Amino acid sequence: MKRPIPIDQNEILKRCKSIDSNTHKGIQGHALIIAGSYGKMGAAVLSSKACLKSGCGLVTAYVPQYGYEILQISNPEVMTLTDESEKYISNIAFDIKPQAIGIGPGLGQEPKTQKAAHRFLISHKTPLVIDADALNILSFNKEWLALLQSKTILTPQPKELQRLIGNWNSEEDKFNKTIAFSKQYDLIVVMKGAPTHIVYGETVYQNTTGNAALATAGSGDVLTGIITGLLAQSYEPLNAAMLGVYVHGLTADIALPETGHQSFIASDIVHYLGKAFMSLTK
Predict the structure, then answer these.
(1) Cα-Cα-Cα-Cα dihedral of 74, 78, 79, 83, to 10°?
(2) Residues 6+ apart with CB under 8 A from 81
């Protein structure tokens, strides 16, 4: 494996786009977040709010019926569509045309949810971010990986990565297997960890932002929302992944003097996104 390329401010500034002063919500991208199940609606709330706070013009959350009021009250700026099932997603059907879709946070692994995910992968070719339970569903059904479009972004934590690529016996082995996996299916793999790495083909990138404060529930859901929002704004998938992990980590670096490691939670990532993005324009 070649030495990783650092994802630092210089690398990000080459890839970060400025926002046109004459833009409006209709051309800032429309993202769809497919997420949530009974007891895990917070994942849908966090992911969709982070998506909006990444600069996306419009965000719609697709959730079980149970989550309708939760989303409408928690995120009044986010539009909400509901599945036909009450407690979990069983039939992903919508008539909007998003520029990017994020799927997986809090999704659950019900058999009907798995079948719905399969139908979705067959029928939709929109740029995609896959996280959490959607990754676990893929690991149960590895033949479905062939359905993924080129440069689909996967955001596994270590256990999810292990389910996808199999066991490894060293760090080098882990990276070699992830590289082989990325090349086989032409996927971008965001290997969440300390530090986070991004693998695309033979090239490995290493994030330089973030600290132990990010080791908190919901942190990954927020990352999915950020990357999906950037994808919807017409960022190339690799650039969306790199900018996403960079600003995600940067929020924890900015917040640390105020929150410390212990009191930083996933909602704080969303809260500090504005300062993180502003630091890139100074």
Answers:
(1) -60
(2) 60, 61, 62, 63, 94, 96
Question: What is the longest distance spanned by two Cα atoms in the chain?
Answer: 53
User: Six-digit token pair at 240?
Assistant: 């969306």
SS3 assignment, position 153: strand
pLDDT per position in the chain (282 positions), as tens?
Answer: 789 999 999 999 999 988 777 777 677 999 999 999 999 999 999 999 999 999 999 999 999 999 999 999 999 999 999 999 999 999 999 999 999 999 999 999 999 999 999 999 999 999 999 999 999 999 999 999 999 999 999 999 999 999 999 999 999 999 999 999 999 999 999 999 999 999 999 999 999 999 999 999 999 999 999 999 999 999 999 999 999 999 999 999 999 999 999 999 999 999 999 999 999 986
Q: Is the bond preceding residue 195 a cis peptide, omega within 30 degrees?
A: yes
Q: How far is CA 145 from CA 35, 167, 216, 218, 242, in A?
A: 20, 18, 29, 25, 22
Instruction: For residues 202 and 184, give the distance between their C-alpha atoms in angstroms, rounded to a whole number.
Output: 11
The helix/strand/coil state of 128 is strand
Could you give the CA distance from residue 110 to residue 246 in angstroms, rounded to a whole number?
Answer: 33
Strands (E), the chain: 5-7, 30-34, 58-63, 79-82, 100-103, 128-130, 153-154, 188-191, 197-200, 203-207
Torsion angles phi and psi, residue 97, rounded to 5 = -125, 80
Backbone φ/ψ region at 48: left (φ over 0), alpha (ψ -120 to 50), beta: alpha
Taking the C-alpha atoms of residue 44 and residue 63, their distance in angstroms, rounded to an integer, is 8
Q: Which residues contact 44 (CB under 8 A, 6 or more apart)?
A: 33, 35, 36, 61, 63, 67, 70, 71, 105, 106
